[in-house]
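Narrative progress, year one. The postdoctoral researcher (J.K.) led the effort to move from monomer predictions toward full complexes, under supervision of the PI. The following entry was the first complex the group processed end to end, covering 577 residues in total.
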Amino acid sequence: MEIIACIKRVPDTETRVKILEDGSGINSEGIKYITSPYDEFALEAALRAKETEESSTVTVMTLGNDGAQENLRNALALGADEATLLNGAVTMDGLATAKVLAQEMKSKSPDLVLFGVKAGDDDQQQVGPMVATLLDYRCVTNVTNFEIQESIVICKRQIEGGNEVVEVTLPAVITVTKGEFEPRFPSLKGIMASKKKTLVTKDVQVPESHLVMTGMEYPPERDGVYIVEEGLEGVPELVKLLREEAKVL
Amino acid sequence: MSNLMVFVDHRDGSVSNVTREILSVASSLAKELGVALHALVLGDSGAGDCSGQLAEYGADKILVAEHPTLSTYLSESHREVVVSAVESGDYSAIIFPATAKGKDLAPRVAASLDTAMASDVSHLEIAEENLEATRALYGGKVLARLRFTAFPAVITIRPNIFSAKKTSGIGQVTNIDVTLSMPEGYKVKEMETLGRENLDVSEAHTVVSGGRGMKDPANWRLLEDLRDSLGLEAALGASRAVVDAGWRPHGEQVGQTGKTVAPRLYFAVGISGAVQHLAGMRTAQVIVAINKDADAPIFGVADYGIVGDAMEILPVLTEKIAELNSEE
């Protein structure tokens, strides 16, 4: 089985983000980058799928800049067999990204493609299903766990107020949320082995973004906390404030 | 600009709250633009019964696609029908509720139409005759304003971002023919609902959220009591720590790897306030923090705070709120 896991390099959540003077974006200096959290689940799901299916390979793929090589190397150390860096611009336009990824995937004809349900930087939540539509693959989103049975994937999917079990026929795209796919840690053996694995870099032309950013700003600041009396004493005042001042009770 | 379309989320003949909220904002935009607001309803026979409710929230035209296959959300069938309905008209934007269904369907529709999608839009307005959307980036640390250069623009909107306002639309109903030609290859085998009345934390007006400070999963009954005192539109939330510990289901998790919520009132009980948690609730209208540690970061984002033992405070808080309710 040919498996592809797509990842994205994003700023660490803890990172303070500073908007550039001209409002055209954020200052990338001093930012610590990581692999988007949901993509770590996707990679883990890919590695587990590989373990349960004989003669499977996992290719980890990303659209990004040279910095993303680090993320790909980490994925190889965890157990991915090969890596592809599509060197091109990433924008908020998920369809532009999806077109580039789908184009690359066509040559590999994967059976299973895994994405995190959304990226940790823009939270756009679109690339996975878009790639599926472009490839005419079936797709299940927001999956917490899945099992492959011959040519069918049985997925547990999170919906409002509960879960759903969905079956799709391969080839398929699955977007993964936090569920059973707790990421593994790299072993020394894995790190050493990764040095011999193939990391291919290809320059790609990314279609123009159809989302044009006209400005960027910080969200409005909150007024600051009002702390009532400590412990039980404070409860009556809190309730009064919520009712009369905040008007939410 | 051309007409606006809203994809309707409905359950048992009732239009969901988030759909009403979206219709309300779309209705005022449509009026400003001088275009019509269309609502698209997919479902089994009788799906069109909610048309009256749609007209009450501004729908001028209601497109109803009824077919047995559409009684459950099946991605290919839904995608095909929505794309066909959109292509039969002229639309500048299609707005989906950012529910599990909407988030699944919208990108597929955008890709089929070769257009652009902005998800979780928190503000929508007309600027220089263009539709301008605002959405958050980097876990809510920054807001970006966007314009679209491909149409129809596909947009998703979360619950509780806009207010539902009744405003009469023309309400003309049209039944559209449903032809399904794509092989589905997507089957829903079973559904399991947890929690009361399917109210998801992302849809609730009030959230009572617990973290490690609750000390023990058994103490959740105190949070449940508080939630019950707050009425039917209240739901439980949880921090990542207690979900990872197996105390609460992932469906309740609020935060970067959980849900993003914007309720009117958010109680953060025994939650320290890590950046990853804040990413999921920082836009709540009113935040109340209950924590033993006066230095907990949560107090930096809360509007009201009470320092003390949650296990002692919760029952008294629940009682006082119940008293308030019985006075009405």
